[in-house]
TrEMBL record:
Residues 4-72 form the Semialdehyde dehydrogenase NAD-binding domain. Belongs to the aspartate-semialdehyde dehydrogenase family. This is Aspartate-semialdehyde dehydrogenase. It is an enzyme of class 1 (oxidoreductase). The keyword Metal-binding does not apply. GO terms for molecular function: aspartate-semialdehyde dehydrogenase activity; NAD binding. Keywords: Oxidoreductase. It comes from Streptococcus pneumoniae. SMART domains: Semialdhyde_dh. It comes from the Bacteria.
Length: 72
């Protein structure tokens, strides 16, 4: 069983480093969600070989998330 992981601030330098670390980790991830500002929503970033659409960070964005990582 894997986790649903959210990366808040995925488009920034710290978020990019967190994504890289998650790609290299052995953490069982079933689903990853990238959260950022409305300005970045709709764009995409890679996770391993998958395109992940960036979502706007809202109150409801964390529904179903097991682990959330926040960057500044």
């Amino acid at each position: 069983m894997g986790y649903t992981v959210a990366v808040v601030g995925a488009t920034g330098a710290v978020g990019a480093q967190m994504i890289k670390m998650l790609e290299e980790s052995t953490l069982p991830i079933d689903k990853i969600r990238y959260l950022a500002s409305a300005r970045s929503a709709g764009k995409s970033l890679k996770f391993k070989d998958q395109d992940i659409t960036i979502e706007e960070t809202t109150e409801t964005a964390f529904e179903g998330v097991d682990i959330a990582l926040f960057s500044a």
